[in-house]
Amino acid sequence: MKIILSEYSSGFSDYSYILCNELSKDININKLVYLTDKNNVYIKKINSRVKVVKLFNCFAADDRHKKGSILWLFNRGLTTLLNCIKRNKYVRKEKPDTILIQSTLVLFDSYFLKSLRKITRVVLTVHDVIAPTKSMEWSMKSLKRMYENADLLVVHSETNKKQLIEIFKIQEDKIRVIPHGVNSKFLKYDKNECRKQLNILDNKKVFLFYGGIRKSKGLDILIKALKGIDCILIISGNLPYGESFEEYRKLILKNGIRTVEYIKFTEDAFRDILFQASDYLVLPYKEFYSQSGVFMQSIQYHVPIIATDVSSFKEFINKYDIGFIAKPNDQSSLRKVILNAITIQKDYEENMNQAILENSWEVAGRLYAETLKM
Q1: What are the b/e assignments for 4-18, b being 16+ CB within 10 Å?
Q2: Which are the contacts of 146, defined by CB distance < 8 A and separation ≥ 6?
Q3: What does the alpha-carbon distance between residue 290 and residue 157 come to, in Å, rounded to a whole number?
Q4: What DSSP string runs through 286-302?
Q5: Taking the model in full, what pTM does it have?
Q6: Percentage helix, strand, coil, to 5, in the chain?
Q7: Closest C-alpha to 213, from 279, 297, 282
Q8: 282: which strand partners?
Q9: How far apart are CA 1 and CA 372, in angstroms?
Q10: Is residue 272 a contact partner of residue 297, using CB atoms and an 8 Å limit?
Q11: pLDDT in tens, 145-156
Q12: Terminus-to-terminus CA distance in the chain, angstroms?
């Protein structure tokens, strides 16, 4: 059986390379091809059974035009269009049994998947049922068309499956739920040593806000909710292009919050330190239609989670008893939940181990392989 896994966004390469390694373990998949971009930093970590084809251009590497300019946007769109054409051409040549698409641009693949289905079976992993940021690259109509044009859709939670059915009227038998995958392997450090590296020298509760700092993620609500609570807030993540951290800086000063800030892309090795220095991960999202990779990373590090009741957060937290749920867009609710979390002395180790066991990459890889062979 021949499978092609296609992904040309560096934002998903840390997911795709692990999935490739898991799929390569299946003896019934005798040829696995990974189509990726030329700047993929994880290629050296891929199993030798996987054929890596650096087919795609990476628009993020193009610095000829000012980011955000009309020429930059045009170049970005053109690069993606050419990547879609390259992918379809490669599939026509190779004629795989199935193509598994991990990332794409809705604007083009809302149409291109239809022609791709004439060549092979198309399975699309829906990491974001609805993208977290507004863009000219997608609309609700184009999302629905793309979902309809795939043969099968993979989501990471029952909540996301329900969203596809209720919002986009996708047939239930067209959707498979496969865990996001938890990687239990990381360098383990002593919590106090991690805190020393972050210049945290006292024994206060440490809360972590991690990942891209978009307005929909509710960092402003978290800062306000922490007012008067004796704690430290670690903020680590990139800002969207053109946005400033100044708005949050003013809130931090106004509310007297002690912070440790890394407003930039976080390398994997430093992520190990951030999570292991923290008592809780906080996800105060205002709205969300995805399964958060950051959420699953917190399970990986055995760090309990405080999250708002959006997407599948409540589903996972209640199932495994690994944290607390607050109302979204509600500063008072979030504050009460944080204070409750501080007062409760609980060992989450056993619960986290169960969550890892049921959502491991081994489980995800096996379910993906079963789905691709259907």
Answers
A1: bbbbbbbebbebbbb
A2: 104, 106, 109, 110, 113, 124
A3: 9
A4: S---B--HHHHHHHHTT
A5: 0.89
A6: 45, 20, 35
A7: 282
A8: 306
A9: 10
A10: no
A11: 999 999 999 999
A12: 11
